[in-house]
Amino acid sequence: MKNFLIGALFILFLLSSESAGAQSPDTSLAPLITNIPNRNTISLDGPWHYVVDPFETGYFDYRYQPTARGFFQNRQATNPSELVEYNFETSPTLRVPGDWNTQNDKLFYYEGTIWYEKSFIYHKKSDKRVFLYFGAVNYDAVVGLNGIILGQHLGGFTPFNFEVTDKLKDGKNFIVVKVNNQRHIEGVPTNNFDWWNYGGITRSVCLVELPPTFIQDYFIQLEDLQKGKISGWVQLNGTHKDQKTTLRIGELSRTIAMEPDDKGLAHFSFEEKKLQLWQPDNPKLYNISFTTAEDNLSDEVGFRKIAVKGKDILLNGKPLFLRGICIHEEAAYGGGRAHARDQDHILLNWAKELGCNFVRLAHYPHNEDMIREAEKMGILVWSEIPVYWTIQWDNASTYRNAENQLTEEITRDRNRASIILWSVGNETPRNSSRLEFMSSLVRKARSLDSSRLITAALQISTDEDHVSILDDPLGAYLDVLGCNVYPGWYGPPPAPDQKFKTAFDKPLIMSEFGGGAMQGLHGLETERWTEEFQNKVISDDIAMLKNISFLRGTTPWILKDFRSPKRLLPGVQDGWNLKGLISDQGIKKQAFFTMQSFYKAIQDGKIIFGQ
Ligand code: GCB
């Protein structure tokens, strides 16, 4: 009977998720809890058992009907004659967090379903609510706890959580997650993208223990630079949502008392004259804490103001040139999907060495540690959702999926001083349904966070008589224009008198340019794949960039060579995109030093834009 009920629930779940459109976010997810690093958590990282299931046998019977034998039940034969054709306990393990591709050679190219299982002991506490939190799972995760399906999450780069207070048992528990990284035409991203489709539970998993009414989320920012006005809100979750809440910033001797409304929301604002502002050469962070009768939550936050004025980007009121670099979330030295602080640190240190004060974290939200590490190191961040190339602009559930990923990204990171730009996409085609789709994302981003700038990586529309025109109508909705160009690599080199024009009175970040080289291959600068060729491309690009009066930032493509199944040239690419200024093994190519000199000249005031 119990099995029948679970089976029926499973079928209902499948049917309902199908009828809701497989790309829609699942409503059984709990509102996202933020600032996980400073919560009371129980880590579920480590080895998880796994079953590779390319035919989804744990899901469908031989008539391809949803089956009651779902692997969520984690069954084992109870007597020698019983037929049960899987067993997590005797299956091998994968490390969580981590992609499966780089943990087992047989899974290197695998795109499909893998079932993960983790058993753990939990002692229930009557005064605690418990949430199961995933940092990210790529791409489609259906999560079960003790045989009960909690829900589904789509999108490979953002966190999600379920409340499990009533579903946990005192003693032994098990989680089963069906992870599928198959690409879909209606997905975000879609079928076609230029990076490795690392599958698995790629970021940390934990249980979060919270009091009955807890501090779910908050937002704190420097709203008005002149007045030193700090403002924000705090959101409580639970049955006593109107309990008194205090914000304390010890170093500023500030204690702000709040009385949340019956929905648990309280706003605050105050003026502070002696504030030390967060900035790249002094990334000052203040310890803050929110306290209620039941909960206490601390964080380190930086106060700074980012704005645009005409063609200038202003940080704390002063014009700034963003000396940046694009980065994929891929660990150096063949490491696969990056997820750990030391891996992030390697990448950000290389960026610093290049002379950067800015990174474009392409093409999806990177892990939370990366953003926090950048914040500590004084590095500004462009954060992006994987609305990449050609997705289904007319599909309402694709839009909901993209908007959900944007919401999860902003919810997780809107208190991080390092992030100055939310990007709503990369190299998307010009047409009316895309404009509707992406301008709606811009509106959504502004509604979630009015304190940051919005951008997108656009493309040149025409290139005639040595004049490149950037007039994509999406530009009208953005604060900062991004633009990707590849002269000398995908087309002829730029003309010596190449000019750029735009219809918008806005700053431009050249968000991609460059070319590929095999590190260590030397030859003429006319020979493709040599370091000399790449260096010539970058040098020509720099000469071109110097003539763009509205240029306020550059992020060449890309810091480090990265894996891509689209890069097939044998003996040269072998599955790697080689446009890195540094090889995967950490060896700098010639172009690194050319870019470094350019940034040094900007830093020393020898090259000034906008004069
Ligand atoms: C682009 C894309 C980036 C690619 C790059 C390339 O325009 O935005 O994702 O990897 O070009 O290497 O071609």
Instruction: Give the overall form.
Output: globular
- Beta strand %: 25-35%
The residue ranges in which pLDDT falls below 50 over 5 or more consecutive positions are 1-22
Number of helices: 7
The helix/strand class is: alpha/beta
Average pLDDT, all residues: 95
Specify the biggest β-sheet. Answer: 8 strands, parallel, barrel
Keywords:
single chain; 611 residues; alpha/beta; eight-stranded parallel barrel; six-stranded antiparallel sheet; 7 helices; 35 strands; 17% helix; globular; disordered N terminus; binds (2S,3S,4S,5R)-3,4,5-trihydroxy-6-oxo-oxane-2-carboxylic acid
What does this structure look like?
This protein is an alpha/beta fold and 611 residues long. Helix content is 17%, strand content 30%. The chain has seven helices and 35 strands. Strands 23-24-25-26-27-30-32-33 form an eight-stranded parallel beta barrel, surrounded by four helices. The chain has a six-stranded antiparallel beta sheet with strand order 3-2-4-9-6-7, with helices on one face. β13 and β14 form a beta hairpin. α4 runs parallel beside α5. The protein starts with a helix and ends in an 8-residue tail after the last helix. The N terminus is likely disordered. The structure holds (2S,3S,4S,5R)-3,4,5-trihydroxy-6-oxo-oxane-2-carboxylic acid (GCB). The site of (2S,3S,4S,5R)-3,4,5-trihydroxy-6-oxo-oxane-2-carboxylic acid (GCB) has 9 residues, from loops.
